[in-house]
Amino acid sequence: MMVEIRNAIESDIEILLNFEKGIVDAERPFDDSLKEGEIHYYDLMDLIRSERAALLVAVVNNEIVGSGYGKILEAKPFQKHKEYAYLGFMYVNPTFRGQGINGVILQKLMEWAKSRGLTEVKLDVYDANVIAKNAYLKAGFKPHLLKMRLDL
């Protein structure tokens, strides 16, 4: 299977919005703080147009089957680096999962970050999402900080 990774373009938006819905649906069981109904995590058009972000898509046989973005964010003043790459919108069509596509997208995003002189990459994953956590561990990520919450 040949996987092409390319920058997303504006005409990809409908597919990307469906991917976003897939992410939200998959994450709802892990987060009871999400509003009911349709919600959006990302401003996808802004990510496509931004010079400080790369929204990538994975294409197999002319079909977009995966996505992910990297965005340059400012680090906290007390950190060693001034900026870092934050990754998100990691999604692979269920039919194509388990074939290494997410890993290829991650690798391209890390190359993008390095090409901009960044030395750190961060992402968020729900602690209970064992499959996603294992994929990121396999890619070399390490747990860093556990965010906790409490409903009042």
TrEMBL record:
Keywords: Acyltransferase, Transferase. The keyword Cytoplasm does not apply. Gene3D superfamilies: 3.40.630.30. SUPFAM superfamilies: Acyl-CoA N-acyltransferases (Nat). CDD domains: NAT_SF. InterPro entries: Acyl_CoA_acyltransferase, Bact_Acetyltransf, GNAT_dom. Residues 3-152 form the N-acetyltransferase domain. This is GNAT family N-acetyltransferase.
